Amino acid sequence: EYFSEGCAPGSPPNSRLCQLCQGSGGIPPEKCVASSHEKYFGYTGALRCLVEKGDVAFIQHSTVEENTGGKNKADWAKDLKMDDFELLCTDGRRANVMDYRECNLAEVPTHAVVVRPEKASKIRDLMERQQKRFGILGSENSKFMMFESQNKDLLFKDITKCLSKVREGTTYKEFLGDKFYTVTSSLNTCNPSDVLQMCNFLEGK
């Protein structure tokens, strides 16, 4: 109820959280879908929505820096400056975008490769082998780059440096951390996700 309209890809299509979404511009328009077919999908998409239509965006700490100062050559971003934006802190203050360590909604864990427990060992070994061949320092990275793509963030985010192991047996709640899990859980009560409901159902089983 706090926002009169917005774009939160994956929300119910007729909800106010899809009203600012633009879709793909094609046929079908795929408006508000939780994929790159929605123009405002992802962190960069959220920033673009802020620039073109919105007042507030929920993004990660590096998004503004990655898309300002000429780093993003797209028409909507090429003239943006870091000083065009500021952070809104939970205590009511406003802060410079580089003060994210002290001013943030929650500390978000890095992205993870998630697999079924019985396949974890095989997938971990596969990822390690591929990184040795196609990672930044890989022996065959002239043939293929694991962390670069012509289409932005195709397999992994293009700013990825390497993959690191997570302690075996770590649950998703432990990985996310108490603060972030609490924040996202509270958001889910406002805008329930069918995917999360299914995951919770399966976890309960």
CATH class annotation of the largest domain: Alpha Beta
Helix content: 25-40%
Give the C-alpha Rg.
19 Å
CATH superfamily of the largest domain: Periplasmic binding protein-like II
User: Could you please say which CATH topology of the largest domain applies here?
Assistant: D-Maltodextrin-Binding Protein, domain 2
Number of structurally distinct domains: 3
GO molecular function, one term: metal ion binding
Protein name: Transferrin-like domain-containing protein
GO cellular component, one term: plasma membrane
Keywords: Ion transport, Iron, Iron transport, Metal-binding, Repeat, Secreted, Transport
Keywords:
iron; mainly alpha; D-Maltodextrin-Binding Protein, domain 2; two-stranded antiparallel sheet; transport; single chain; about 200 residues; 3 domains; about 30% helix; ion transport
What does this protein structure show overall?
Pfam families: Transferrin. Keywords: Ion transport, Iron, Iron transport, Metal-binding, Repeat, Secreted, Transport. InterPro entries: Transferrin-like_dom, Transferrin_Fe_BS. One of its GO terms (biological process) is antibacterial humoral response. The chain has 205 residues and is mainly α. It folds into 3 domains: 1-59, D-Maltodextrin-Binding Protein, domain 2; 109-170, D-Maltodextrin-Binding Protein, domain 2; 171-204, no CATH class. The protein is built from 6 helices and 2 strands, in the order ααββαααα. A two-stranded antiparallel ribbon has the order 1-2. Strand 1 and strand 2 (94-95) form a beta hairpin. The protein starts with 41 loop residues before the first helix and ends with a helix.
